[in-house]
Design goal:
The chain is an alpha/beta fold. It has 2 domains: about 120 residues, NAD(P)-binding Rossmann-like Domain (Rossmann fold, 3-Layer(aba) Sandwich); about 170 residues, Dihydrodipicolinate Reductase, domain 2 (2-Layer Sandwich), CATH 3.30.360. It contains 9 helices and 13 strands. The strands form 2 sheets. A 7-stranded mixed beta sheet has the order 8-9-7-10-13-12-11. It has a 6-stranded parallel beta sheet with strand order 2-1-3-4-6-5, with helices on both faces. Helix 1 links the parallel strand 1 and strand 2. It is globular and about 60 Å long. The two termini are about 25 Å apart. The relative contact order is 0.15. The mean pLDDT is about 95.
Length: about 325
């Protein structure tokens, strides 16, 4: 039975991981009392005694926690931004070619960002297949539920006397320095940062990431894009699926789930690439548990909420 410690289990990502793991019989959760959860010595003991340690902490606290670990047997899955582009850390998106093998054999795994997961799932295969050049100048629009802002934003949205402006979508990251952009560039192999426009709206969870292309951006056709996606994402937790709700695409469709669907809409001149998932699922906690399952040699979807008819992929091939 694997021993698991969640450092930062009271944040939204940590709470969702805990909820999923409490239902499992193959996991022993190491827990600290309310009085000890910020005690450095107690945290260090828990980290060193764990087979898997999830870090659900702010960036600086995550870096500090990594330095605290002395056990050579503790696998760290860091859900912060701190190590996503760092050397000697494996990026935890197993659907990338060869990445599942690296995850399964790593002691240090950086869990992807939520917006970044949707962007990379759309763009990385197209760069790899030479349908998009590495020097392409892309733009990305990403709509998320307010749980992505953590407990503070959840309280802000759910208070009875909240600001009326919260009832409409709000763009943020206005300086074009959003913390997910570096991993978007590095993992996709892009020369230029995308113009990135994240938007938070008045629903709890769900995410819809959109990348728009013109015919000038593309070496091929929209059918070439669809073929590349269908080849790469025919099973597992990311799937190609042209699904809509009577001509609409809801950002909340995958709320509560741990998988993702992607699709390409439009024509050869104007193309919209779309990924839909839960910002707390495949965008955070679900992805972290998926990575843990791979480390433990289990089916990647063990303990996760996936659709009927889910078909596992052998990602190590």
């Amino acid at each position: 039975m694997a021993k698991v410690f969640i450092d930062g289990s009271y944040g939204t990502t940590g709470l969702r991981i805990r909820e999923r793991l409490l239902e499992r019989r193959d996991i022993e959760l190491i827990t600290l009392s309310q009085e000890l959860r910020k005690d450095k010595a107690a945290r260090k003991e828990a980290l060193d005694s764990a087979d898997i340690a999830f870090l659900c902490l702010p960036d600086d606290a995550a870096r500090e926690a990594v330095k605290m670990v002395e056990s050579p047997d503790t696998v760290i899955i860091d859900c912060s931004t701190a190590h996503r582009t760092a050397d000697n850390w494996v990026y935890g998106l197993p659907e990338l070619d060869g990445q599942s093998f690296l995850i399964g054999n790593s002691m240090n795994i950086a869990n992807p960002g939520c917006h970044a997961s949707g962007f990379i799932a759309l763009v990385a295969p197209l760069v790899q297949e030479n349908l998009i050049r590495p020097d392409a100048r892309l733009s990305c629009f990403s709509l998320t539920g307010y749980s992505g802002g953590g407990n503070g934003m959840i309280a802000q949205y759910e208070t009875s006397d909240r600001d009326r402006l919260l009832s409409a979508p709000r763009m943020y990251g206005l300086s074009q320095n959003h913390k997910h952009v570096p991993e978007m560039m590095k993992v996709c192999g892009l020369d230029h940062a995308p113009v990135f426009c994240p938007v938070v709206a008045d629903f709890y969870s769900g995410m819809q990431v959109t990348v728009c292309l013109t015919g000038d951006d593309l070496h091929g056709t929209i059918d070439d894009i669809r073929a590349a996606y269908k080849e790469k994402y025919h099973c597992g937790l990311i799937r190609y699926c042209e699904d809509d709700e009577n001509g609409f695409l809801s950002s909340a469709k995958f709320s509560g789930r741990d998988d993702m669907i992607i699709a390409a809409y439009g024509n050869d001149e104007r193309i919209t690439l779309v990924s839909r998932f839960d910002n707390l699922g495949k965008g955070a906690s679900g992805a972290a548990i998926q990575n843990m399952n791979i480390v433990l040699g289990l089916d990647e979807a063990t303990g996760l909420v996936v659709p009927d008819g889910y078909m596992a992929c052998n990602l190590n091939l």
